[in-house]
From TrEMBL:
PANTHER family: LOW AFFINITY TRYPTOPHAN PERMEASE-RELATED, TYROSINE-SPECIFIC TRANSPORT SYSTEM. It is found in: Cell inner membrane. GO terms for cellular component: plasma membrane. It comes from the Bacteria. Involved in transporting aromatic amino acids across the cytoplasmic membrane. GO terms for biological process: amino acid transmembrane transport. This is Aromatic amino acid permease. InterPro entries: Amino_acid_transport_2, Trp/try_permease_CS, Trp_tyr_transpt. The chain crosses the membrane at residues 7-25, 31-56, 82-102, 122-142, 149-167, 179-197, 218-236, 272-296, 308-327, 333-354, 375-397. The lineage of its organism: Bacteria, Pseudomonadati, Pseudomonadota, Gammaproteobacteria, Alteromonadales. Signal peptide: none annotated. Its main location: membrane. It comes from Shewanella algae. The gene is tyrP_1. Keywords: Amino-acid transport, Cell inner membrane, Cell membrane, Membrane, Transmembrane, Transmembrane helix, Transport.
Length: 401
């Protein structure tokens, strides 16, 4: 039973991580080259794994059912709890905006290609948002049933996609170097966001119990699985297309269609498109359900039809508004999400551990290595990621996507 829980929890971490953010990795890192992009992913995976272990250090001194808000309130007070709530809300809204923009662009592209309908880009965003909103508003059970089917299909599509793409990888493309030094910094927010799984840690702790040895294994192995998938995805996409071709295909539909066209294999384009659709749908379902429940709890809405309709409007209208005014804003919204994710997955764990270590602890308590130097280094990395996004917003750094 214990091994089953450990394995299942690894898949929860991996499943939470592998989603629509994966689609943004090749366009976001197009100007870096495969080698530099891979090093960047390894470093950011290391950062997120380290802060996940910090969360375990905090959890060992709290009840197994403690949430991030409980922990923040216990160690950082009411202000810390408020910061955690605001960051969570901003993160979920930004992710929903990204998925509506990406899903809407995909839907519009299919209407053009298969139905010969040339419609404003906003039509796809509205259609995609309404479809997911309907499923979420009906209830968690409907999300669960639909998500199981879509997730299974997504894994099948992922395996087929990699199998079709990897044989086309060319060594020359993989050896290309960064086009500009600043692009290394610009790519940080989007790549960082693709490793976000910290919201699932309290649920895993509650499920497994305070078995630190098992939880450490879950965090490291569970987050390493997406890293492996991402490296294979980068190998396949950056090996199949040159930097100039990737840089010219930054919009999601163009990137997906370009893979099939440039490799003269329509099946590749179709498979990547199917995977993209499934990744966007499953990611949007999970995130919007979390936001729906989060907002319903804050506003104290019950499960009556009227209250669920109100919660659905509050959940979906703000991110839909972003997608309507910025229909090609998939990667931009992921960049905005990185600011909130840094607060939740880097600053809060570092601050809570710093506070906790200043208090008396029982002998034999688990403590992540590295001491104060590692904590300060992690916080500095978080500052760099946020500065990267802010400088791109200000037009000082080159934007990705």
């Amino acid at each position: 039973m214990k091994n089953n829980k450990t394995f299942g929890s690894m898949l929860i971490i991996a499943g939470t991580t592998i989603g629509a953010g994966m689609l943004a990795l090749p366009p976001a890192s197009a100007g870096l080259g495969f080698g530099v992009a891979s090093i960047l992913m390894l470093l950011l995976w290391g950062l997120m794994s380290y802060t996940a272990l910090l969360m375990l250090e905090v959890h060992q001194h709290a009840p197994a059912h403690a949430t991030l808000h409980t922990l923040a309130h216990k160690l950082l007070g009411r202000k810390g709890q408020l910061l955690a709530s605001l960051a969570m809300m901003f993160l979920l809204y930004a992710l929903c905006a990204a998925y509506i923009a990406g899903g809407g662009a995909q839907l519009n592209d299919k209407l053009v290609r298969y139905a010969d309908l040339t419609l404003p880009p906003q039509v796809g965003a509205i259609g995609f948002a309404l479809l997911i909103a309907l499923v979420v508003a009906i209830g968690t059970h409907s999300v669960d049933m639909i998500n199981r089917v879509l997730f299974a299909l997504k894994i099948i599509a992922l395996v087929i996609m990699l199998a079709l793409l990897l044989p086309h990888a060319q060594g020359g493309y993989l050896l290309e170097l960064p086009l500009q030094q600043g692009l290394v910094i610009s790519a940080l927010p989007v790549i960082f966001t693709s490793f976000g799984f910290h919201g699932s840690i309290p649920s895993v702790v509650r499920y497994v119990g305070l078995d630190i040895k098992a939880l450490k294994k879950i965090m490291i192995v569970g987050s390493a699985l997406p890293l492996l998938v991402y490296l294979l995805w980068q190998l396949a996409s950056q090996g199949a297309l040159s930097q100039s071709e990737l840089m010219a295909s930054k919009e999601l539909p163009k990137f997906i269609n370009g893979l099939g066209q440039l490799l003269h294999n329509p099946m590749i384009g179709q498979t990547v498109s199917i995977f993209a659709d499934l990744a966007l749908a499953t990611s949007f379902l999970g995130v919007s359900l979390g936001l729906f429940d989060f907002m319903g709890d804050i506003l104290r809405r019950n499960d009556s039809a009227g209250h669920r309709l109100q919660t659905a409007a509050i959940t979906f209208l703000p991110p839909l508004g972003f997608a309507l005014f910025y229909p090609q804003g998939f990667m931009a919204a992921l960049g905005y999400a990185s600011i909130a994710l840094v607060i939740l997955a880097v600053f809060l764990p570092v601050a809570m551990v710093w506070k906790q270590r200043s208090q008396p602890m029982s002998e034999g308590s688990y403590r992540v290595g590295g001491g104060k130097v590692a904590l300060m280094l992690a916080a500095l990395c978080g500052v760099v990621i946020i500065l990267s996004q802010l400088l791109q917003m200000a037009g000082i750094l080159t934007k990705v996507g």
